[in-house]
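COMPLEX REQUEST
Ligand: zinc ion
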Amino acid sequence: MRHAVCQFHRRIGLKARTHHTIPVISAKSIARIEKLDLPKSLLDTIKKEARVRHRKEALTVRYQLHDVSADFIFPDRWHREYADALADSVRRGGKHRAFLCYEPADDIELLGFFDIFILASYDFSSYKSKAEQSERTFSYIELDAGRIELLQKRLEVLSGVYAARDLVNTPSNDKYPEKFVQMLQSHEWTRTKLTILDRDELERQGFGLLLAVAAGSSKSPYVAIMERMIDPTLPTIAIAGKGVTFDTGGVQIKPEDMEDMKMDMGGAAAAIGAMMGLDALETLPWNVIVAVGLAENMPDGNAYRPNDIYRSYTGKTVEIDHTDAEGRLVLADVVGYLEANCAPKSIVSIATLTGACMRALGYEYAGIFGNDERIIQAMIDLSDETMEAYCRLPFDHRVLRACKGENADLRSLNRKYLTGPSIGAAFIASFVERARFTHMDIAGPAFRPEARGIFPKEGTGFGALSLYELLRRWV
Ligand SMILES: [Zn+2]
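STATUS: Structure written out below.
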């Protein structure tokens, strides 16, 4: 727990400032500022400040903003298309960046800017013996009390994104399923009910596929369930997250790219991050249940093998095609459990499921699949606002048919069928009978080789913000 979740508030603060704390800037910058269309009173203050202070720049932000220590100046009105440039500037700048801003046109602009500032300020340094955490403060001038409250509330949501990133970045020796569960238990949930199913319970209830995936590891699997039951008459939406805390590929061990595999619980992290944000809201338009399947995929004498056949939670049997296609097995049992126990109207699964999705869509887009048109469209529409982009990929009777097994009801993979990401989605969907279904494959954007825009290097928390926005509103 010390290393993950909830580090947020000590690193980012909100601070009221007066004109007197406007950062000091060089003569060159002043020349640049003079060309801006700033109110005269603000310009005079800046010049006065600049004379009395020397080279002691602080990161001070006021809206609308201009980065005065770099060669870039935003136009008069904020626009989403500047988001990446601003985020890169915030991240590069650290303490030594000066921003000048004037008033936001509306709350949407203010929050858009605030999100970028906070999300681009993230770093993961809790494992370093010397604290290297940069102090970053979002400072504001002349914001009214309503807007300050708005920002404070937004911090609760963004802290969920930070928590998702921390979870992904935490090394696997510190987040195997039992430790992962401890982190969830030590989080201070206000309105969310947390239930943990341990190995005995999973065996009793018949989570055959999840147990098969975990068989080669000395670490026991778990399922963690987080519930917000608002009103039994409201529809329920259920989210299933893949939480493979490390993925070696199993006995068909990965020939390459194993070094990133601490990220294979990115779907669980995103769902949990969203739930942390929702926990701060007094009510929701529907009941929300998040369940994450936690297991480690390791090779040893007890590990599951190709051609093994296992019985799933729902009773359907599955022939294992490849031991590295373990995420869909974990999710199959979790969605089966959710449908049987929670009667959801809609189920959403989120996972770092296939390398093929990453190769198809790169790091900027997640694949989205399914038959819940409203949710799929809502997620695509939210892309602009949350900066988490989704691209719809094929999902129909063809891919569903390709999951049919020869020796069992289903096979875990169909290598003759080339659309791997769609087969993954269809396999999970095969365990959902009544609910509408959406699957999101975040294999690319969950973990990046380098930072860009609001996304840091490595764990991005991708999915947490868009799921939060989806779940807090009715679609
Ligand atoms: Zn795998």
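REMARKS: DSSP finds 16 helices and 18 strands in the chain. Residues 14 and 333 are 43 Å apart (CA to CA).
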